[in-house]
Write a structure and sequence with these properties.
The protein is α/β, with parallel strands linked by helices. It has helices spanning about 10-20, 35-45, 55, 75-85, 100-105, 125-135, 165, 170-185, 275-290, 300-315; strands at about 1-5, 25-30, 50, 65, 85-90, 115-120, 140-150, 190-195, 205-215, 220-230, 235-240, 245-250, 255-260, 265-270, 320. About 35% of the residues lie in helices and about 25% in strands.
Length: about 325
């Protein structure tokens, strides 16, 4: 499979490395606005540099396209993918606005090719294990859920994430993962209330804290932070039910522990090591080759954006919002 990549930054590099490791595809072409960055990227992967994005979408020799650019450009590239009828994988957040989410959802209804959203959390072993435990009822009736996702401050003034109109800040960058996780594992969100640090126009230390009431009756606490020490990145969860507690923290070893309410014993479990990026690519290629839906269809990514925008609205209005 010959794959074209739109973008040449960190996420594009993760995707390209996964393509190389897979042995099932190759990076055929790349397009990015930064000419120096794209030249280095193309040289590293033996790819052709396209003069513009349309050149990649219109190339009949390219079977699929991965969109890994800043969020505001996603909608336009998805339109090009639809026009060219290409298999496409778009990084999260899939779009930036509610209007774009509605437009792209309508555009891709009945799409004959594979259209997938890049939500790596759904391919991360510890989160897949959490979903399995919940589906099997091992924790009983879930009462509380704590989800954390955090990284170091964004100090580079040229970082596009620091423009809230482009990135949506920490809510659309990080919290969007855990909002999607909530619905995937625990079901619909009923109401959400979000507080956000007063950054006075400086997003580099953005921080948001959300309380969500689920339709099941469970309460979820979501923390998203760009305010950690330099180079820090971690993610964690704690889920408490009537039969026990499941805890995970990427900083600890073992990362995953379960506390049973019946025998009071703590048992460590480390899931099989599997790169989420590799698993996501394999799923995308399998969907193309077998003519089956991807694990994370584009519509799932669009729904995650809608939830994140509701969370952002709550933070801006300082009011709880009913979801739906």
């Amino acid at each position: 499979m010959r794959i074209g990549i739109i973008g040449a930054g960190n996420m594009a590099t993760l995707h390209a490395d996964a393509i190389v490791r897979s042995g099932r595809a190759q990076v055929a072409a790349v397009y990015a606005i930064d000419t120096q960055q794209v030249a280095t990227f193309a040289s590293r992967y033996g790819a052709r540099v396209a003069n513009d994005a349309r050149e990649i979408f219109e190339d009949s020799a390219i079977g699929a396209v991965i969109i890994a650019t800043p969020t505001p450009s996603h909608a336009e590239y998805l339109r090009l993918a639809h026009k060219a009828q290409k298999h496409v994988l778009c990084e999260k957040p899939v779009v930036r606005t509610r209007a774009e989410a509605d437009e792209i959802a309508a555009l891709f209804t009945g799409y004959p090719c594979v259209a997938a959203a890049g939500h790596l959390v759904r391919f991360t072993p510890e989160y897949k294990y959490l979903r399995q435990v919940i589906r099997e009822g091992k924790l009983g009736q879930v009462g509380t859920i704590r989800l954390t996702r955090a990284c170091g401050a964004r100090k580079d003034p040229s970082d596009w994430h620091l423009d809230e109109s482009a990135s949506g800040g920490v809510i659309l960058d990080l919290m969007v993962h855990d909002l999607d996780l909530l619905t995937w594992v625990f079901g619909p969100i009923q109401t959400i209330y979000v507080q956000r640090a007063d950054h006075q126009g400086d997003l580099c230390h953005d921080y948001a804290l959300a309380i969500a009431k689920l339709s099941s009756g469970a309460l979820a606490h979501l923390e998203a932070s760009w305010a950690e020490p330099p180079g820090e990145f971690y993610y964690a969860y704690e889920v408490a039910g009537s039969l026990g507690i499941l805890e995970f923290d990427s900083r600890k070893e073992p990362t995953l522990v379960c506390v049973s309410r019946t025998d009071k014993q703590r048992v460590g479990r480390t899931p099989e090591v599997c790169s989420p990026v590799d698993a996501q690519l394999a799923d995308f290629l399998d969907a193309i080759e077998k003519g089956q839906p991807p694990t994370v269809p584009l519509e799932v990514g669009l729904n995650a954006v809608r939830l994140a925008l509701v969370a952002l609205e709550s933070a801006q209005s300082n009011q709880p919002i009913v979801v739906g």
